[in-house]
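Slide 14.
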Amino acid sequence: MGLRRSSRHAPVGADDGLIGQTIQSHGHRQAYAAKERSKIVSSRHNRSWEDLTDTLRAAAAAVRSALGRAGSPRPDDDAAAARLKGDVSRLEQTASDLISTISSALRERGSEIGSSFDRERAQRSAEQLKTSLEDLSVLAASMTTEVGSAASSTLKQAEPELKNVARALENVAESATSWIRTTIDPEKKQSGAQASENNPPLDDL
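Slide 15: predicted structure.
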């Protein structure tokens, strides 16, 4: 998604020290978030299920924390706020779609209880879900970078969308955790000593 850092030009005056500190603080948050996003991208195929869900929860917490510095809306921030709202809304939709996918997988898994376990199919589902979680984690990291560098007035205008996306990310993490407990953990116990190089446990994906 397109990410742009909002900026405002303030007149030079007695508040320059505070403005400089604010810009430096924004720059620090942006650099830190960019570093974290780079780590996610470089290690995305080696991350555990728990790490992915923790990343989503951390992104939701970062959004809620950013809302703590939301200030009064400013008309000259309308364009920046519109961009932020658009990016955040797209991320929320992606998260909502993934929640629906996980819910369907949970229902499907429930219907299989008591019947033969299709391990190959379960592996494909696990691979697809993990890839989706990895993709969402990268998008969430990009979003936290944008939120971290946004002006306080911009955050205020986008407050409803930010609250929604934080809730959506938390819901994905919760749904994914339920899926792991329903599918991954039982299979891990069942595989046990039977796991071989050609038949790895699902949690190794």
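Speaker note: Residues 1-26 have pLDDT under 50 and may be disordered.
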